[in-house]
Specification:
By secondary structure, this protein is an alpha/beta fold. The chain has five helices and ten strands; from the N terminus they run βααββαββαβββαββ. It has a seven-stranded mixed sheet, with helices on both faces. The longest helix has 22 residues. The protein is globular, with a radius of gyration of 18 Å. The termini are far apart.
Length: about 240
């Protein structure tokens, strides 16, 4: 069961303790539960032009790297243990990097994905900064001389996913009016030499649950433009350009 929280210490220290240190410890177990691409992410990647070069910010175990063999993705994550797992996937590159300090030149990527990452930043300012950092590494998209800007004529575009507050039909049961800053448990079960004896350890990860419209607002505040947005299975998502 998730518990409410209101981070009041230094945001970086708070995230180190309640996000980064946790993922370092649960990396292998976490990876074993993350293998199926989410439909909208899969569709976004499959529709990219052949030869596109992109960045997966917060790649986790790299499960999206093989979705489209005709594009090249740099896998980036703050967790060295998850990057180690992602680096085992062939034909792609991986790097340890913080979302707020991406080590890439401005305007250097055709696309980016950030799947279930930004919600781990513990303040509004840092979440907007994280989105701005993603947009900064994308090739800028000028306004078209004719017609409207859309997914087809956009140049550098990012798909961003965050957990939604509105999850009343899920096992978590959150909904509008509930606390947006929560601690979510991760239970890691382990078995020793005796298969009948189970040991378990519970870790708690910080999440900011996004309410409807909040992600789009953060994208605009970060200097981006929203091309598409929507809701998919307890998540809000948006496709954005610079």
């Amino acid at each position: 069961m998730a518990s409410s929280t209101s981070p009041d210490e230094d945001p970086k220290d708070y995230e180190d303790k309640h996000v980064h240190e946790v993922y370092e410890q649960i990396a292998s177990h976490f990876s074993s539960t993350r293998y199926k691409p989410w439909p909208i992410v899969e569709r976004f990647l499959q529709k990219l032009p052949s030869g596109s070069i992109g960045l997966d910010v917060g790649c986790g175990n790299g499960k999206y790297l093989a979705v489209n063999p005709d594009v090249f993705i740099v896998a980036s994550d703050r967790s060295k243990n998850l990057v180690k797992i992602a680096s085992q996937r062939p034909a792609h590159s991986s790097v340890i990097a913080d979302n707020l300090a991406l080590p890439h030149p401005s305007s250097s990527f055709d696309f980016a994905i950030s799947i279930a990452v930004v919600h781990h930043l513990s303040s509004h300012t840092r979440r907007v900064q994280a989105i701005a950092a993603i947009l900064e590494i994308l090739r800028p998209t000028p306004e078209p001389q004719q017609g409207r800007l859309n997914l087809q004529n956009a140049q550098g575009k990012a798909l961003i996913y965050v957990w939604a507050l509105e999850q009343k039909t899920s096992r978590r049961g959150w909904d509008e009016g509930d606390q947006q800053d929560v601690m979510v448990p991760w239970v890691m079960r382990q078995w020793g030499n005796d298969p009948s004896h189970e040991n378990s350890r519970t870790f708690h990860r910080y999440y900011h649950l996004y309410r409807q419209g909040e992600l789009e607002s953060d994208v605009v505040e970060a200097g981006g433009r929203v091309l598409q947005s929507g809701y998919e299975k307890d998540n809000w998502w948006a496709v954005a350009v610079r």
